[in-house]
Amino acid sequence: MKSNTFYPLFINLHGKKILVVGGGRVATRKCLNFLSFGPQITVVAPEICEELQKIEQISLVFREACISDIQPEIYLVVLATDDPVAQEQLSEECRKKGVLFNRSDLPEMSDFITGSIINKEPILASVISSGSPEVTKLVSRKLEDVISPELVQLSVVMNEFRRTVIEKYPDRKIREEFFKKWSSEEILERISVEGIERVREEIQKCLSQ
What's the predicted TM-score (pTM) here? Predict the structure, then answer.
């Protein structure tokens, strides 16, 4: 059997309902990871840590979770309790109702896992490594170093001009050549030496010809 059957997939969470069952350290970490992507988060647990209580964007329900909490309109469920019986009952209810879930105690039995997130907007990456959280952290640190300020600046500028490029070059091959020309190690070096504004001006000039 393959050691990793999870497919890397980026989904739009803006406005989506997420249910987090549990109010401890793991639940807090999951909520904080989700928060900047704009979902509607509800946390259900008899005890909820202070850090979660301070976050105004999260709805808190102080009680034990029950299977009726699992509703089809919920987009994702995170099960982060220390009760294996409750975890199993709630995950089974998710399966019955077709709701994607993550189990903190048995990630391999989950429908999705979140991994370690590297967010240097507009660049976003996520890393997992089967069986070793420390390896995941190591890879994340390596990626943090690779995503330089120059790379972030270039990504911002290319995103600014993306619509203009599509309109000017309807031919996909020509468009790909344009992006390839301006997305290179040479351009990153120029940004480091000359600054991003110089490169932006040249791209603008190229598109106005």
Answer: 0.86
**Domain segments of the chain: what residues?**
17-114, 149-208
pLDDT digits (tens, 9 = 90+) for 61-115: 999 999 999 999 999 999 999 999 999 999 999 999 999 999 999 998 999 998 8
Q: Quote the CA–CA distance of 146 and 123 in Å, as a whole number.
A: 12
**Helix pair 196-208, 172-182: axis angle to 10 deg:** 160
DSSP for residue 59:
E
- In the DSSP assignment, the letter for residue 191 is H
Q: How far is CA 171 from CA 162, 184, 207, in A?
A: 14, 21, 15
Residues of the chain falling short of pLDDT 70:
1-3, 130-131
The dotted CATH code for 17-114 is 3.40.50.720
Q: Which of 149, 206, 207, 154 lies closest to 184 in space, CA to CA?
A: 154
Residue 132, pLDDT score:
75
188 sits in which H/E element: helix 185-194
